[in-house]
Specification:
Blueprint lengths: L1 H21 L8 E11 L2 E10 L5 E4 L3 E8 L9 E3 L3 E3 L10 E2 L7 E4 L5 E9 L10 E10 L6 E4 L7 E4 L2 E3 L3 E2 L4 E2 L4 H5 L4
Parallel strand pairs: 6-13, 7-15
Antiparallel strand pairs: 1-2, 2-9, 3-8, 4-5, 4-10, 9-13, 9-14, 10-11, 10-12
Length: 198
Amino acid sequence: MTLVVLVGSLVSIGPSRATAASVAPCSATMVRITDYNTVVGTGHVNDLFWIRNVSRQECTLRGYIRAGFVGVDGIGTPYKNPHVLAVRETHLRGDAGNEVGGISDGLQIPTVTLRPGGSVASFWLDGLDIPVGNSPGPCIISHEMLVWLPGSPTFSVVQPLRSNGFYWCGGFAALPVVAGASGSDPSKRLSYYFGIPG
């Protein structure tokens, strides 16, 4: 009896693994990325972004986005002759220091499956909007962010929230892409970060 159950289990596991492996990674044409909201305090900035599946097929994401910024060097510089800026990007797991969101200790970076019709994943970018340190890094202002999904050779263009700019001083850190809208794993209510709308 035990042998029959065991064999039955092996048969049922096989197809599910094959199905998961056959789901293609999300590409830039399959998703829409939006700047959802920002948490700012004591010079620290955390931006939450949503990735929504707008295609007709399922796709997966795992890992970190890569971001580039089009703009000008120096906060306060007139927005003339914008170009791709050199901005240092690092990766963090989250839940340490001033960054918010990310993955709790003990959890692995997840593989997120986005279903057709608007399924959502999310991630945070974390950094400073004031120069700090003895040799502070340069500050930039950008009104256009280029986002490469994990493993994707092409980028999506993302506009800042409500016509604000993206401001970074000395670089920024990306946190992993996770399932749901809060940019955190385990998921949290959005009011945890942004309060209850008045």
